[in-house]
Amino acid sequence: MRRALVVTAAVSLAAPAAASASITVATNVERPALRVDAKGNAEVSWSAGGRRQSLLVPPTGRFLPGGRLSGPDVSRPTTAVSLPYRRVLRRTPDGRLWALQTWQVAFSKAVELRFSRWRGAPTQITLAAMLSGRTEVLQGRATFQGRAVTGTSPTNAGTPILLAGFFDCSGCGAPGWIRWGAKRTAANGTFAITVPLSRRGSQYRVSIAGPNLGATLAPDAAAIAHSVLR
Fold first, then answer.
1. Distance (Å, whole) CA 167 – CA 177
2. For the chain, which residues make up each domain, given as ranges?
3. Whole-structure pTM value
4. Are strands 135-144 and 164-170 parallel, antiparallel or unpaired?
C-alpha cells in the first residue's frame, strides 16, 4: 500500500536494502505541496526536472500519477504533532492528519518524498547507545499507537516490503550524516545493532518507515542518540 510510485527493494535479514511503508511519491523534489478534498482525496504536487508534477491519492485503491483534485482543499496547516523530516503537515475537519516527509531511504543517495495519512499519535521510535567493548550497541523500539512496527508493509500494488530501521552516524569521518547500516525489527518492534569501529561517531540516528494498515498510512519516524564514548 505504501509509497506512491513505490521504489521497492528487497530487505535481506542481514542488511536490509529498502523499506516502503508510508508512500514514496518521488525523489529529489522541490517545493512539495499537499491538498485534500472533502472526500479524502489527497493531491501531492512537487517540482522536478524543471516542471510541476502531481499524484492523486484516493481514500482507497490505486494512486493516479498526474491526478488533481476536482474539489476545494479542506485541509489546514497544523502543528498538532512533531514529525521528523517534515515538509508539510495538515489536518482535515474529520481529525485526520496528512503529511509529507523527505529523507534518504535505504542506501541510495536519493531523497524520497513520502506521503502519510492517519489519526492520533504518529509512529514512534526510540534509540539508546550502550557501551560494548571498543564500540557501542544501539538499541530501541518502533511502535505505532502501541502496536509494534515489524514484519512487512504492503505497497499500493500489494507487494510486501520488510520494515527495517536505517542507521546513520554523525562525526564519524565525513561531514553530515552517513548511512552505515540497517536492521529489521523483532516481533515486538525492538532492535539492536553494533556500530562498526569505522562508524563510531558523536551521534547516531535511526529512521523507519511507518506501516501501512488498511487506509492508514502511518508517518515515518526517527530518533537520535549521543555516543557514550564521547
1. 9
2. 23-226
3. 0.88
4. unpaired
